[in-house]
Amino acid sequence: SWSHPNDDAMEALIGHTLEHRFLVVGIDADAVDTYVRTYKEHYRCISTQKTVLLPMAREAIEKAGSFARLGVVTTKTGLYSRELLEYFGVMDAFEVLIGREDVTHAKPHPEPVFKALEKMGSEPHRSWLIGDTRLDAKAAERAGIGCVGVLSGYDNEAQLQLLTPFIENNALDAVNFLAHRAKT
User: Fold this and answer.
1) Alpha-carbon distance 171 to 157, whole Å?
2) What is the pTM for the complete model shown?
């Protein structure tokens, strides 16, 4: 029997694919596709009203674009992510967007990171990922790229420090850290 998971249990699943989340909370494997489809239909209707850019995100994107080439790797559907980034007027800053449907294995597997690097013609040893979950940091590590963890997500400093020594309070601080590294 299924019971409603508590908020802490749900927060621990942020960053994981919808398929994984539904399985973990006890949805029968045969019903997961239906749940995912229903969730996505609802999400698409409310996403622009319920989503906000994190504080200083626009500034971080603009500054990063002044010295680096940018891409997005997400466990969300690429189509919906693209629509949100366009809604907020920042999609043009990114050369590539790799969504869940673009890969066989989602983060923390390195496949989406490798796919983004390949599409951009970028080398792992010259690339960095800014992320706010352990999944981001694990994917970066497994892909052989640097990672700056940011504390604007659901994972805390202690959790992120297990995977990367580079932790910043927000995306703009992370970009400033990378800008400084690029100069040295």
Assistant:
1) 14
2) 0.86
